[in-house]
Design a protein that fits this description.
Elements lengths: L3 H8 L19 H18 L12 H12 L4 E8 L5 E7 L4 E7 L7 H13 L8 H9 E6 L4 H6 L20 H13 L3 E7 L4 E4 L3 E2 L2 E4 L11 H17 L7 E3 L9 H7 L3 E7 L9 H20 L7 H5 L3 E5 L1 E10 L7 E9 L8 E7 L6 E6 L4 E4 L5 E3 L2 E3 L7 E5 L8 E6 L3
Parallel strand pairs: 3-4, 3-5, 5-10, 8-9, 12-15, 12-16
Antiparallel strand pairs: 1-2, 2-4, 6-7, 6-11, 8-10, 12-13, 13-14, 16-19, 17-18, 19-20
The structure holds zinc ion.
């Protein structure tokens, strides 16, 4: 089960060592132009190297490996078996480059968080051309870095598109006990290659908003705390600059939609512990973008982010970033609701209308469709992605939305949304708008 000897395959390329890891010296004196390179190049890689066989956010591990198979024959990529999932699906690392600085990226340790896994496929396609085509950025990454990618760490979870693994464990809370095969694999790869830099690639709640600004967060970044005091030591400070570089580039792609993730130290989580073990660790969380139900736009944003970070590490250009670029980011601040209807009078049969606000969420925050009531009452402090001003109007729940008992009716939290906004309390008055399935 523990293919430890296989890790020796990394040994020839992994000379970096924990907190004392050597990193590439800076060769770039124009940080702006370096950033420029990676925004345009990232867009181009995302478009020209998009692995078309993966085009929705839910896919299985066999589908993924068959999609990237064509690139893995490239002499520029090395595939290393590193373990197996609980159900025996193979876990493999793909390595690019032979440089002195080792960078480790792993994705989808939560099975329903696949955005970065898609982006890694596109990047592997681009990397696979290194032997046949010259590209200054790619050549620089290949000569300065050894990039080890472990996509879809939790293939059993991905099979059901769920967060946890096959025995219900959240792998990102298993760093201390290492009870799961997947966590043991992640720890073993980390110990084998001792990466100087690491990227922990996730998707966060699609309804998360950043404050100030109250915008839906597309990308949240974090240089996780390495200790409960939340201090910025040398390792975390470097990670902060890498995150700052990612923000600098992405602000020109998705302005105002980047935030900082909660930085409370979590001793059960891999990112936090890796930072304490000396790897400069950046967490990248994909949230959501408008009109991007399968996260294909966010996939492009991930390609730009990862490429920008790799290049900044290869050139040493991240050191020219300002810590304030990281510190001054908006912060993840809870969730918005999908829709709030403000100031409508709810019309219940046989009762006087009650003037309230009503919020509801779609079952799928990305695709919309079926929705359920979330809260009714004074929702002045609630932030919504879509606000309907219904002052002076009347909200008529359809019978199917109401619960009946002994001849009386209830409007309950969680009820399936099926209602009509009308001009009057009369059920025949003019319709302003319908919500949910038509009565
Ligand atoms: Zn996650």
């Amino acid at each position: 089960m523990s293919p430890r000897p296989l890790f020796l395959l990394f040994a020839t390329t992994a000379v970096a060592c924990g907190g004392a890891a050597r990193t590439a010296t800076s060769t770039a004196s124009h940080p702006a132009s370096v950033a420029e390179c990676c925004l345009d190049l990232g867009r181009r890689v995302a478009a020209e190297h998009r692995v078309a066989a993966i085009d929705v956010r839910r896919f299985s591990q066999p589908q993924y490996w068959s999609a990237i198979e064509p690139f893995l024959t490239s002499p520029s990529l090395r595939v290393t078996p590193v373990g197996a999932s609980t159900h025996g699906l193979p876990l493999r690392a793909i390595t690019f480059g032979r440089g002195p600085t080792t960078v480790f990226l792993w994705s989808q340790m939560h099975g329903d968080e696949s955005t970065a896994t898609m982006a890694l496929a596109d990047l592997m396609s681009w990397m696979s051309r290194a032997a046949s085509e010259r590209d200054p950025v790619r050549d620089r990454i290949a000569s300065q870095l050894t990039v080890v990618m472990l996509p879809m760490l939790n293939p059993d979870g991905a099979e059901l598109f769920q967060r946890e693994n096959a025995v219900g464990v959240d792998i990102n809370r298993d760093v201390r006990r290492l009870a799961t095969a997947e966590a043991r694999t992640l720890r073993a790869v980390r110990d084998s290659i001792k990466p100087a830099f690491g990227f922990n690639l996730h998707d966060q709640n699609a309804r998360t908003i950043g404050r100030p600004g109250n915008q839906r967060v597309a990308i949240a970044l974090l240089a996780p705390a390495a200790e409960a005091t939340n201090a910025f030591g040398a390792v975390r400070s470097d990670a902060r600059l890498v995150a700052a570089r990612i923000r600098s580039v992405l602000e020109r792609e998705i302005p105002g939609r980047i935030a900082r993730y909660d930085d409370t130290f979590n001793p059960r989580a891999f990112g936090d512990l890796m930072q304490s073990w000396g790897t400069r660790l950046v967490l990248i969380e994909s949230g959501a973008l408008p009109n991007d139900p399968e996260k294909q736009q966010l996939r492009r944003v991930n390609v730009i982010a990862i490429l920008s970070a790799l290049d900044a590490i290869a050139t040493g250009g991240y050191r020219t970033e300002n810590a304030d670029t990281y510190t001054a980011m908006p912060v993840n601040s809870g969730s918005a609701v999908d829709v709030v209807i403000r100031g409508a009078a709810v019309v219940m049969p046989g009762q006087s209308p009650v003037r309230v606000d009503l919020s509801f969420n779609y079952d799928d925050p990305l695709r919309g469709g079926r929705a359920r009531v979330r809260e009714i009452g004074d929702l002045d402090e609630v932030t919504a992605f879509d606000t309907v001003d219904a002052a002076g109007l009347f909200l008529h729940p359809a019978p199917a939305m109401l619960t009946e008992s002994r001849g009386a009716l209830w409007l309950r939290i969680g009820a399936p949304v099926q209602m009509t906004l009308r001009r009057g309390a009369d059920a025949a008055s003019e319709v302003v708008r319908e919500f949910g399935a038509r009565p």
